[in-house]
Design a protein that fits this description.
The complex is a heterodimer of chains A (151) and B (490). Chain A is mostly beta strands and 151 residues long. Chain A is built from one helix and seven strands; from the N terminus they run αβββββββ. Chain B has two domains: 1-243, no CATH class; 268-490, no CATH class. Chain B has 21 helices and three strands. The model of chain B is unreliable at 255-266 (pLDDT under 50). Classes of the chains: A mainly beta (151), B mainly alpha (490). The structure holds iron/sulfur cluster (2 copies) and copper (II) ion. One iron/sulfur cluster binds next to helix 12 of chain B. The site of one iron/sulfur cluster has 13 residues of chain B, from helix 10 and helix 11.
């Protein structure tokens, strides 16, 4: 008992009026495509002291989920320790978006070594970002990646 | 053909203000433009911003917020993402450029390609660690725009949503548990309607892009919630109506124009009795498990074992094997096995029992997994959302600071993250799985009740009951494992 018969489909020309809108938006999209380059950042990701060597050591090593100690060792171009850097902060991010980072401040400085108490919250791939203000006022920024395993 | 008229107690399109906005000619365009702006932001920050996923708007908004909020919308309302989908915007342009193209080939007018695209998408996600790469996430969005544009330019109708799009496929199946559904307000108005503009369109408006016919809609499958039908109907006869929970999985009442076996056969579920559609429901469930499994320790052990056994370090290949097994072969084998057993058990008991072909049994029972499957996806995506929703705040602060705007502060507050405690998240996961499982059981028992006799019903539902139980237990096991977030091999 077929109740419905469909008339021949007449697909209409829709959204006539908004054609310019689409064209503009699409052009915008196309214009964005070749921007493969990294955006110049104003503040957050600039390293101003490329000649300084930073070494990150974790204990235990290899890293395990749980409490840990992180050591940052800074040496200048001549291999001399950088002892009076300030505001040394460590930020641990997981490779997966949307995980709360681990944050810590490192202190000390004797022999250019700064120490922070730490906790790895989950197994996986981590990025540790170290930022510090050098005695001459420049900002140092380095990123280290490492894998954390289950104990 | 039977007319379906649900009891429309609540109609979103009659809510003062909101209903008008939704039915307004440019209503969808407004939503799409908002989503387009967000998509452009994702592309921009993904390509040019910090390449640490947790600091990039692209990675955070797509892999934490999109997925969490989409599940919430599906649970509370319906397929709201497709409603505001930005990818169909350039498509509209393509249609204008291309004019009339070919029809989508008959051989592809089913869900097989969509099943493949969904599995392929999940494979891509894991094999290329999309969750860790803002750059690839941006390209994924660009790829989406391109694919939708190209398909629209080549074909006369809109095949992308219905036959290809993995997001649409996901949302279609998930929305079968949603409380809202398109329905005719009055069946008699449709009966005398001449133009059927809701599906055919008119010179001013589009008809349904996925070729659904309002008075016959019994399922949210294939409905993008675009509301083109509501705009097209000259009799203002379309509702976005509230429906009873799980109504889609409960066979409709038998219509009295046949008797005996024929009558029982009419007590069909709202889903078409097709291999592809029913298989899609199973794949949706198994893929949900496999996707969550992909973040737990045993998968790394499995990958390492396979890597050694096959002498390859290709993560893409190893993942293709694991996902092919878990998302395609396993549901095919277990689903067919359950259907075969269910058919045998039911028929052995009672000759009068209404046993259809293997396909009919498969297609009747397999979709009852949808509520459990939804729960599995919900649990997984809400694990991420609940543990990281607020990370969007420092990420946005960071983005603004990068552009010299200190409106939201001059230092990102990186200590923000979860919106629920770990224990609360785990409880939510368990509650979701329990609710999903019980809902699937209810759907299963109601479906089985359409068998000839009570005994036949009990026996026929047994294999499915066992299968759904195994799925639920596997889900609980997987979510009890510690999460791990890293690349597959080494
Ligand atoms: S156009 Fe309106 S009245 Fe006509 S069939 Fe469609 S929903 Fe019913
Ligand atoms: S039935 Fe068709 S036209 Fe109506 S909202 Fe669903 S997809 Fe859009
Ligand atoms: Cu996950």
């Amino acid at each position: 008992m077929p109740v419905f018969m469909r008339p021949i489909s007449t697909k209409p020309d829709l959204l006539h009026a908004s054609r310019p809108v689409f064209l503009v938006l699409f052009a915008l999209l196309l214009a964005l495509l070749p921007t493969g380059c990294q955006r110049a950042s104003q503040q957050t990701t600039a390293d101003q002291a490329p000649e300084i060597t930073a070494v990150l050591t974790v204990a235990p090593d290899p890293a395990l989920v749980g409490p840990a100690t992180l050591l940052v060792q800074l040496t200048d171009a001549n291999g001399a320790p950088v002892e009076s850097a300030t505001g040394i902060s460590l930020k641990g991010d997981m490779s997966h978006a949307g995980m709360q980072p681990v944050l810590a401040e490192a202190s000390g400085g004797a022999g250019g070594v700064y120490q922070a108490q730490w906790a790895w919250t989950m197994a996986g791939d981590w990025f540790v970002t170290v930022t510090a203000t050098l005695p001459d006022g420049r900002t140092l920024l380095r990123r280290f990646d490492l894998a954390v395993s289950r104990p | 053909m039977a007319l379906h008229q649900p009891q429309t107690s609540f109609d979103l399109l009659r809510v003062p203000g909101l209903g008008r906005l939704l039915r307004w000619r440019w209503g969808r365009l407004v939503m799409q433009l908002v989503m387009l702006a967000l998509a452009l932001l994702v592309i921009y920050d993904g390509l040019t911003g910090p390449q640490l996923a947790s600091q990039n708007i692209a990675a955070v908004s797509v892999w934490v917020h999109y997925r969490g909020l989409v599940m919430l919308a599906l649970l509370l309302a319906g397929n709201l993402f497709c409603m505001g989908c930005p990818f169909t915007l350039p498509r509209t342009l393509a249609r204008r450029i291309s004019g009339r193209g070919r029809r989508w080939p008959q051989a592809l007018r089913n869900k097989w390609l969509a099943v493949g695209a969904l599995v392929g998408f999940l494979w891509l996600y894991e094999a290329f660690d999309l969750w860790a790469s803002p750059w690839l996430t941006a390209w994924l969005v660009i790829g989406y725009f391109a694919a939708s544009f190209v398909l629209e330019a080549l074909f006369a109708e809109s095949p992308f949503c219905k036959y290809v799009c993995p997001l649409g496929t996901f949302n279609f199946v998930a929305s079968t548990i949603s409380p809202l559904q398109i329905a005719a307000r009055r069946a008699d108005v449709c009966r005398t309607c001449v133009g059927k503009e809701c599906v055919n369109g008119s010179p001013q408006t589009l008809g349904c892009g996925t070729e659904l016919f309002v008075p016959q809609i019994k399922s949210n499958l294939d409905c993008t919630f675009c509301l083109d039908c509501a705009r097209a109907c000259p009799h203002d006869n379309v509702a976005l109506a509230a429906r009873k929970p799980l109504s889609e999985f409960i066979p409709l009442p038998v219509r009295p124009f046949a008797s005996g076996a024929a009558a029982t056969r009419l007590a069909a579920s709202a889903w078409p009795q097709r291999w592809d559609v029913a298989f899609l429901a199973l794949v949706f469930a198994f893929a949900g498990l496999a996707n969550a499994f992909g973040m737990t320790p045993p998968v790394y052990t499995l990958a390492a074992t396979l890597s050694r056994a096959l002498g390859t370090r290709s993560e893409a290949l190893i993942l293709a094997l694991i996902f092919g097994l878990l998302m395609v072969l396993l549901p095919a084998a277990l689903g067919l096995g359950a259907a075969w057993l269910s058919r045998r058990l039911g028929a052995a008991q009672d000759r009068r029992a209404n046993r259809g072909s293997l396909r009919v049994v498969f297609a009747r029972y397999a979709p009852t997994v949808a509520p459990l499957a939804f729960a599995i996806w919900f649990a997984h995506y809400w694990f991420h959302f609940a543990s990281g929703a607020l990370t969007i705040v420092p990420v946005t602060q960071n983005f603004l600071i990068d552009h010299g705007v200190t409106l939201l502060g001059s230092q990102p507050n990186w200590s923000l993250g979860p919106i629920m405690s770990e224990d609360a998240v785990f409880l939510l996961v368990l509650a979701a799985l329990a609710t999903g499982f019980l809902s699937s059981l209810y759907a299963l028992s109601r479906t089985a009740a359409a068998e000839g006799t009570l005994k036949a019903a009990r026996r026929a539902m047994l294999p499915w009951l066992a299968l759904w139980m195994i799925l639920a237990l596997a889900a609980i096991l997987i979510f009890s494992l510690p999460m791990e977030m890293r690349g597959m091999i080494g």
